[in-house]
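Now for a chain:

_____
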Amino acid sequence: MVVENQRFEVKGTFLMGEEWAHYTKIIEAPNAKQAEERTFAVIGSKHNLKRRYIKVDGVTPVKGE
């Protein structure tokens, strides 16, 4: 069984230095929870941050393609 990936828009904030910076990412994942997990992985690895410094405000499916 192959699960089709959907596109999700993930919005939130992360700690950059001493200030919280906003982000919006388009993530491909099978469901919203996985999109959130992948966002933690992408931002965490790029900015060398732990999960507690990354906040997800919302995950919404992207319509159309």
